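Lecture notes, unit on protein representations.

Consider one protein chain, 586 amino acids long.
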Amino acid sequence: MVGVVAYCRLSHQVQKALDTGSKQVTALQFAALAMPPIPFERWGGGDVEAAVATSSSLITAGGFGVADETGDLSAGLPSIKVTALTLWRGRPVAGLAAGGWFLRRDGHWEEARTGFGALHVRALREGPGGELLIGAREGLFRAAWGASVIERLDPAPVRSIALGESGLLLAGGEEGLRQIEGLRSTLLPTPDPWVDWVGLQGKDVVVLTPAGLARGPLGSPLIPLLEGREARSGAQREDQIYAVAGERLLRFDPSGTTSEERLPVPPLRIFSSAGLLFADTRNGLYRKTPNGWQWARRRAASLPPGPSHVNALATFQGRVAVGLFDGGLVLGESRGPDLIWQSVPGAAAWGVNALLPAGGVLYIASLRGAARFDGRRIAPIEAGGSGSAHSLALTRDGVAIGYGQGVLLPDARFLSAFHGLPGNQALALASGDHLFVGTPSGLGAISGSRVAWRTTAGDGKLPHPWITTLALFKDSLYVGTYGGGVTRRPKPEGKDESVGAFDAFLETQGLKVNQGCLVEAAGRLFLGTDGAGLHRLNAEGNRFVPVKVSLPSLRVTALLQDGDWLYVGTDEGLTRLPLSMLREGN
C-alpha cells in the first residue's frame, strides 16, 4: 500500500512539472527510413526554401526535395516538398510540408517520432548550446542532441525563429510574436498579428507581416518601414536586414539607411543560414560573397515557377498536359530522358479539374468554366453561363461537360437535378452504354437525353454518396468516393436501365479518392487515394492492393497512362512510373 501511494505521488509530481507553464515533454526517437530500390523522376516546385553549407557541399531544399552537388537527396522521404532545413551538429535536418521532420545520418533519413504527432515544420534553428529549435504549426519545440525527449516551449504556431544575446528567443507566427523565457511566453506588439519572419538588429526587433517590414525596440510598438511596405521575404546577415520587395532586393542597415542590392535577375526569395545569405531566382540560386552576388546552383528540374499541385493529366500533341489545382495549364515536352515544362498563357482556364483530348483539341474543365486549347491559345467554350466545370467525357455524339449546375450534353441539352440527376454538381463522368454522372449526392445515368436511373445516400447501395471519379473496366463501372473508398457496379444482364447491384471493396473503406484517380493502364485498374498513395486492382479483380513506390506525396490527385508510363500527379508534384515495374511480383 505504501508503495502504491508513493508511486501515485511521484506520478502526480511528474505530471505537475510537465504541465507547469506551457512546457510539455514527450518521448523522442528516430526511426530509419527504407531507401526505395529504384529512384523515379519527380517534378515538383523549383523554388528554394532554404540552404545550408557544410565544409564540402551546398545543400538546398524546397519544392523539389533536398539536393546537393551530387543530385537528389530526397530518396526515402515520404513526400517531396521541404519547408525548412538546417544543420544539427553538422547533420542536415529537414521539415516537410506534409508533416514530420527528418535527420540525415550516414546517407539515410531518419524520422523523428514524438508524442506530439507529425509536426508541420516551418522553421529550424540550431541553438547556441547545440540544441534544435523547431518552429511548427503546432508550436515551438526544443530537442537536445542525443536526448530521448522533446519539449514544447509554447503552443502558438511558429513561422520564424530569432536568437539574440543572453538567451533571447523570439518566435513569430500566425498568432503574433512571442518572447520565450524559460517557461514564460510573452506576446509582443506587432503591426499585424501574422508574423512571417522575425530578426534582431542590435537592440531592435524587425518583423515581416502582411503590412510589410516594421522595426522597434524589444517590447515597444514597432514602426513600419516606408521602403519595406511591399516586402514579402526577409532575412538577416550580421547587422544587415534584407527584404524582397516587388522585383527589388533591399538592404536596411541599423542607422535606418535603405539601399538596393543588384542581382543579375529579380529575386523570388531571400534567406540566410549560419551567416550566409542566399537569393532564389528563376535562374537559380545566388549567394552573397565579398565579391558580390555569385551564382551558386541551377534551378532544379521542376514544373514552372508557381504552385505544383497537379489536378488533371492528359496527353496532347505528343506532350504531357498538366492542369494545376491553383493554376492553369502546363505542357511537358520530352527532351532526351527529361521533360521540359512550359506554362500556357491565358486566363480562360484556372483551377483545372479535368482534361480531355478530342477532335484535335484539348478540352479543359476549370473553375472558370470550360475551354479548348488548340496548341496555340486557350479559348473559352460559351455554355450559357454554366459556371465552373468539373468533368469531361467523350460520348458517341461528342464531348459532354459536367458543370456545377448540371451536365451539358453534346446536343446542347442541359440536365440537372431538376431532370432527375442525384445532384447538380457533376464531379465525374464516364461514357459507355450510358453516360454515368457522379455528384456529391449520388450516382446517375443518362440515356439519350433523359435520366435513366439514379441512386443516392438513402438507397443504401453506395458506401458514400460523394462520388468523385468513375471508370469503366471489364464490363463494370467502378465508383470512387471521397470518404467511402471504391465500389463496383457489374453490368446488369439484359437492358441496362436499372440501378443494379453494387459490390464495395472493403479494404478501401474510409479512403478518400480524388477526381480522375481511377485509371486503366496496362490491363490493370489503378487507384489514387488522398493520403494513402497508389493502389492497384489485383489480377483476380477482388481486391485493391497498395503499390509501394516513392511518390512526391501520398495525396494522389491525378493519374494518366502514356505508353509504357503511369504518370501520378500529387499535391506536391508529378512522377512517372514504368508500368513494367508495377506488375505483380515486381
